[in-house]
């Protein structure tokens, strides 16, 4: 775990058998008290608590028993728990003051036991001897009539000052609550920053909640942090943890609780806090010529890297981004820095010579992932969960472990790069867009396959149409020759006339047999599938609901067996038909005999027509060609029949592909609305559909290269699409026209006139242009062209004043960066990594950004490198990592000096020493929050 602040589930009012109102058996001896303390620890764990406070009334006898029990707790395997895993126990007391009201006093978790008696003496409490079962009647501390007085009394002692916090009872109208009517002066004047409620805050009436929220003038507009408590006094711990509060700290001290009250938006939650689901948890660099080895754990919420210029904080972020294959933009113009080249130089100069690797541990919904990148060749390896490291591509790493990252001054540079503005828009929906792209590519692949089949069908249909003409000619020739035959016997002419009919019948009956054989093959495949499914069902062993799933499996197997029986029965019918040819008495057997008899008679008739020998030879040749032609026609018809539905399937795939493109636009449009809302209206983002035909026109130019088609005329086609009143319709019409031209082959015999192309003509293409396109454009080229989208483009505007917008590029750099950063902080998404965001911001907006950070870190992890103390201090960074030079004044090497949270004194001192305006930031925090 990192050294920063984390949330802990707490119950700060837990009583023991020593309390005068205890409901349960006594625990007097040391053994009895140790047994009770051990049971309390177990109960606290069962209730999911991470911290408790022992707050018996004016008594501290049991505190150390419970603390020792917490230290002795072990893991399930008996091993000792890590420090951060142990239950935290705060020493404390419940006090009845002469204010009059009750309050809880809490001390640092490690406050020495030997000072407990001195604390009680400072409060003029006479402790009951430890050998007593209960602490007896509690006497109100009438000498303490205000909260200022109790703070003054305690602060007189150096060993106590800064190590305690007083939390008054604010349970509404109760007689022990300082929130009750008439106590507004006491409440407004108290130096306390927090309070506690017996039970749930939800039980307080709205008026009391307004007092606590600092919304009532009479109550001094004083806002305090509140802790729900269970006030458990039962031996069975029935109330323990029923009412609890999640509190954030790095080290469990009274000062940490005070800081939580002062920054309650960030550090106190009455519900289980929402934490980012995608977190970079660790960065390891095997070695670096500048920073040396690095082993840095990052906080799940807000980590701030600080240090003097050139001490390494930016370098750490660049190592992180490089390892995760995050792609910064390249240089688009001379005025924009080339971030890619900068990073490449950094890796080359600090890692490559050492053969160093950078490991980044990344948690996706609590599943650990590790990416390792090698500086020698840039190769990437990934480990998911407990699996082994394996090679992966940069694209795979980016897709699986995304971040949203910006280098120094990059936010203010975004507006001059359309690709960066678009990346800003698409980053939160990158996964959805990738899925859409994958589906579109799959659909396009199917579309190419379907189109190839469709072209085959069109070729067969064209061939079939040509065959019809040839068949008609051959039939006319056969009829003409037969008519010219004279002097034939009537029965011979009858045989000659019937030859084509017998041939046609023979072809048809043969096709029936072929169809039966095809069906039998299909049935055999279905039978094998049913049998395989039956076998698989028998082999399945359910792990849950075994009896129920076994019953379902039985039903499924029965269905598969019934299907197998039905297939066998149907196959039997088919086989019966095929066996008919072996039975002379069957219909097929009789047909075979009749056909053989006819052919014998036909041959005899041909032999008897010796006077017409030449014509009979011609007739025989024509009939043979006609029979062959009929056979080929039947085969072509069968092929067309086998491909039936191809045109519908192609149209369906084309519709699906266009729909996916529309889905992309809808997704982008929805994200534009989200971006507009997240920027609080500072940015208005919209999608202009079918706005960019550059890729389409370029592909068309490439295809028609060398055809003589004028480039400006082709560019006019793109303009005609984007400028149309309905660009989507115009695009489809242009594609239809181009497809007609791709299928028109003027060099082929009977090609006819070039098809009409209304859309292309309307776009300004001349007849000569159309002829050149038809001569050059193939169907394959057209298909590739048809899959080039007319791109939609996002349009970004900046709100200059209410209801007035200007192009985003026309806003100042500070206005742009502020709007973009606000948007980023309002979005839920992957980790947000920014190097020195303050360099892009105008100073007056820092306070607004700070308040957004409090909410943002619940939705996404934030990692900033910064020189601005306000972003770190008042932004309430959970983890502060500070860097310095390895040697004073030597900027050739840096190092990580320390890390922690701002509730730790050494961290506060580091911030004040290192950061510009550090002292002023703490002063501002003190003036605003009482730090």
TrEMBL record:
Stretches assigned to the Rad50/SbcC-type AAA domain: 296-488
One GO BP: double-strand break repair
Molecular function terms, GO-annotated: ATP binding; ATP hydrolysis activity
ATPase AAA-type core domain location: 774-872
Pfam family name, one: AAA_23
Database matches in InterPro entries: ATPase_AAA_core, P-loop_NTPase, Pol/histidinol_Pase-like, Rad50/SbcC_AAA, TrlF_ATPase
CDD domains, per the entry: PHP_HisPPase (cd07432)
Protein name per its UniProtKB record: PHP domain-containing protein
Species of the source: Lichenicoccus roseus
């Amino acid at each position: 775990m990192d050294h920063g602040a984390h949330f802990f589930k707490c119950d700060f009012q837990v009583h023991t058998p020593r309390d005068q109102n205890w409901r349960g058996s006594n625990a007097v001896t040391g053994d009895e008290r140790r047994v009770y303390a051990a049971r309390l620890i177990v109960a606290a764990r069962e209730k999911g608590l991470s911290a408790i406070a022992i707050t018996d009334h004016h008594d501290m006898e049991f505190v150390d028993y419970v603390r020792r029990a917490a230290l002795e707790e072990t893991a399930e395997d008996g091993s000792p728990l890590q420090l951060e895993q142990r239950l935290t126990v705060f020493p404390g007391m419940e006090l009845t003051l002469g204010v009059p009201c009750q309050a809880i006093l809490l001390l640092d978790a490690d406050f020495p036991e030997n000072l407990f008696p001195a604390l009680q003496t400072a409060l003029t409490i006479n402790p009951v001897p430890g050998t007593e079962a209960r602490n007896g009647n509690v006497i109100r501390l009438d000498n303490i009539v205000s909260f200022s007085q109790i703070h003054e009394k305690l602060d007189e002692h150096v060993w106590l000052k800064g190590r305690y916090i007083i939390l008054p009872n604010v349970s509404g109208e109760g007689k022990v609550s300082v929130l009750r009517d008439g106590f507004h002066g006491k409440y407004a004047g108290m130096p306390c920053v927090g309070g506690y409620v017996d039970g749930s805050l939800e039980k307080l009436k709205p008026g009391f909640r307004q007092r606590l929220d600092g919304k009532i003038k009479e109550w001094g507009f004083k806002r305090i942090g509140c802790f729900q408590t269970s006030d458990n006094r039962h031996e069975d711990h029935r109330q323990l943890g029923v009412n609890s509060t999640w509190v954030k700290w790095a080290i469990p001290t009274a000062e940490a609780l005070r800081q939580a009250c002062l920054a309650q938006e960030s550090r106190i939650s009455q519900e289980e806090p929402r934490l980012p689901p995608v977190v970079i948890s660790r960065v390891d660099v095997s070695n670096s010529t500048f920073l040396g080895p690095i082993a840095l754990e990052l906080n799940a919420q807000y980590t701030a890297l600080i240090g003097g210029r050139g001490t390494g904080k930016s370098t750490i972020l660049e190592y992180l981004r490089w390892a995760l294959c995050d792609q910064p933009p390249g240089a688009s113009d001379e005025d924009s820095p080339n971030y890619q080249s900068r990073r490449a130089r950094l890796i080359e100069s600090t890692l490559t010579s050492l053969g160093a690797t950078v490991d980044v541990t990344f948690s996706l919904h609590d599943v650990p992932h590790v990416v390792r990148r090698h500086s020698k060749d840039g190769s990437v390896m990934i480990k998911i969960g407990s699996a082994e490291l394996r090679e992966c591509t940069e694209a795979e790493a980016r897709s699986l472990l995304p971040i949203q990252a910006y280098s120094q001054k990059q936010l203010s540079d975004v507006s001059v790069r359309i690709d960066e503005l678009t990346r800003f828009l698409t980053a939160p929906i990158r996964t959805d867009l990738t899925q859409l792209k994958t589906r579109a590519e799959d659909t396009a692949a199917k579309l190419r396959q379907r189109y190839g089949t469709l072209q085959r069908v069109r070729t067969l249909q064209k061939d079939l149409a040509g065959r019809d003409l040839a068949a008609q000619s051959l039939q006319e020739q056969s009829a003409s020759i037969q008519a010219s035959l004279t002097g034939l016997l009537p029965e011979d002419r009858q045989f000659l006339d019937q030859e084509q009919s017998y041939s046609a019948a023979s072809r048809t009956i043969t096709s029936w047999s072929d169809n039966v054989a095809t069906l039998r093959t299909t049935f055999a495949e279905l039978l094998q599938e049913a049998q395989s499914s039956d076998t698989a069902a028998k082999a399945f062993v359910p792990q849950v609901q075994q009896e129920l799933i076994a019953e379902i499996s039985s039903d499924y197997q029965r269905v598969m067996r019934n299907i197998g029986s039905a297939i066998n029965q149907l196959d039997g019918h088919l086989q019966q038909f095929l066996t008919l040819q072996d039975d002379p008495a069957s219909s097929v057997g009789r047909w075979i005999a009749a056909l053989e008899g006819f052919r014998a008679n036909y041959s005899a008739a041909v032999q008897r027509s010796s006077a017409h020998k030449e014509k009979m030879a011609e007739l025989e040749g024509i009939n043979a060609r006609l029979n062959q032609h009929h056979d080929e026609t039947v085969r072509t018809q069968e092929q067309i029949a086998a491909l039936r539905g191809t045109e519908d399937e192609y149209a369906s795939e084309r519709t699906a592909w266009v729909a996916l493109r529309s889905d992309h636009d809808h997704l982008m449009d929805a994200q534009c609305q989200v971006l507009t809302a997240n920027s609080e209206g500072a940015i208005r983002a919209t999608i202009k559909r079918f706005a960019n035909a550059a890729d389409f026109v370029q592909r068309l130019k490439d295809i028609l290269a060398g055809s003589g088609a004028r480039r400006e005329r082709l560019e006019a086609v793109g303009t005609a699409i984007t400028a149309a009143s309905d660009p989507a319709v115009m695009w489809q019409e242009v594609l239809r026209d181009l497809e007609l031209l791709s299928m028109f082959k003027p060099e082929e015999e009977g090609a006819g006139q070039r098809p009409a192309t209304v859309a292309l003509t309307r776009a300004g293409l001349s007849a000569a242009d159309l002829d050149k396109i038809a001569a050059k454009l193939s169907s394959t080229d057209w298909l590739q062209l048809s899959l080039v989208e007319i791109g939609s483009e996002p349009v970004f505007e900046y709100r200059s004043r209410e209801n007035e917008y200007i192009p985003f590029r026309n806003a100042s750099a500070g206005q742009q960066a502020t709007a973009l950063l606000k948007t980023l902080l309002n979005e839920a998404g992957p980790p947000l990594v920014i190097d020195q965001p303050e360099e892009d911001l105008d100073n007056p907006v820092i306070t607004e950004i700070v308040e957004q950070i409090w909410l943002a870190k619940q939705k996404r992890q934030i990692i900033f490198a910064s020189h601005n103390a306000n972003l770190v201090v008042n932004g309430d960074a959970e983890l502060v990592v500070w860097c310095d030079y390895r040697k004073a004044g030597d900027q050739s090497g840096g190092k990580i000096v320390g890390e922690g949270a701002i509730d730790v004194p050494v961290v506060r001192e580091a911030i004040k020493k290192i950061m510009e305006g550090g002292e002023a930031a703490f002063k501002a925090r003190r003036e605003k929050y009482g730090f």
